[in-house]
Design goal:
The complex is a heterodimer. By secondary structure, chain A is α/β, with parallel strands linked by helices. Chain A contains nine helices and 13 strands. Chain A has two domains: 202 residues, Rossmann fold (3-Layer(aba) Sandwich); 66 residues, no CATH class. In chain A, α4 runs antiparallel to α5 and α8 packs across α9. The two termini of chain A are 21 Å apart. By secondary structure, chain B is mainly α. Chain B has seven helices and no strands. Chain B is globular. The chains are: A alpha/beta, B mainly alpha. At the A-B interface, β6 and α3 of A face α1 and α3 of B.
Amino acid sequence: MVQLENIQFGYVKSRPLFKDLSLTLEPGHIYGLLGKNGAGKTTLLKIMSGLRFPDGGTVTILKESAPLRKAEGLQNLYFLQEEMYVPHLKVDDFVKAYAPFYPNFNHEQFAEYMHELELDQETGYMDKLSHGQKKKVLIAFALATNTKILIMDEPTNGLDIPSKSAFRKLMASAADESRLVIISTHQVRDLHSLIDMVAILDNGHMLLNASTYEITEKLLFDVENTKSSEGKVFYTEETPRGNYQVKENVNHIDSSLDLEMLFNAAIINKNEIANLFK
Amino acid sequence: MNIQNIKNLLKTYFIENWKTDLFQFGMLMVIVLFGTIMSSRGNLNFPIFVASIFLMIYPERLFRNLHGNSSKIHYLSIPASNSEKVLANLVLANVYYVVGLIVSCCLGLGLAQLYITLRGFESLHFYTALNGVGVMLLCVLLAMFFFGSIYFRRKTTLATLGVSLLIGTIIITLYALTLWINGIILIPKDAVYNDYMWSYSSYVIPDAVQMIVLGLVTVFFYALSFLRMKETEA
């Protein structure tokens, strides 16, 4: 559905951000795109959306070249940016203005999502709303477009705690086999129960692109020696419950994925983790 | 090219901008009304001049979403192709806004005429120096500002004006230098010409040719606008 092949990109030619980056994203999954500050997560999302053109390589979205920004492609893609822009319009007018561009937009779903996010369609002008409220309106709109590809950059930034759980609930209900959702975030704890694919971007490459099932098959997330003492330890962190470890899951023991620990383990042991998931 | 997408773009524009447009048309009508009453003349050059200023500023507003980081992402992500976006704005600038300005000017002039008649003064006799070439020149200027509003990132009207003046000055200087080098500048306009000298009349280009050239320049700027939009990134 989304395919990036040998992407080269840099804002400054002498410092490339992506070097031969390749990535394939399939429908029916919610991808969590993780990376350090400045790793290029937002840029990568823009490249996928055709908003930035790579210096080299190809980007294909729904079998079309992304940089062409064809209307048919854009009708099936919604990009929810971190720093949102909302016009000086009331919510109803915003929907009247922009919903016709999306053939699968569902007004009933939009009303339902607005309700779930505790928003009233009768609220005043969108540009006068708080950051969190603006984000909630756009999340409801994005989900109601029913686009095949939904790209979200830091969607939980600015949301209060009840809204974060409402967001997770909505996302879980909106995801289906034909839809691809890509969420870039720093706030991994907000999403760990939501995503089923993890992509880690580091130093211009995809360090990891695997399903949560595959990750917990190969890595064990647990307090030191509780379940197994075998396997190479990739990362250790002191917690009130004891030393939390990420290690090789040699005995295929079930454990629950901790995205933050995974990220730290992957960043510290780049080659080992990359080889493990080859 | 999908007509439905262009219709959607126009609908979005009207939902977002109808109040601003109404205000601007009203403002133009008031300016024309008072300008005409105060001058007590039917000279249409003043309303045309003011309406032209409104028209040249308009493309900056049409493409304002391209001048901010997040609004640019919003605009480029709207499901319509680059050519549909340029075409929708071209229709707005060349048809909708022009008609709006003409109607506003007519209303202003009509009200001024009514006021003058009611006060018992002599009716206005409208006249203008604007001809076909002048209209085409306005088309070129609009196309230039249209392109400038896509090309430049901010203060697009001023930037276009500045660059145009600079380029114009350079061309005029080079032209004057050429004439001066050739000595032609020394020949008075009313000199008696013969076969050995350049005829003054040879410099007068027929209106039809001027209009065709200006039409081509207009098309050139719109083509540039399309290409620029195509390569715009967020």
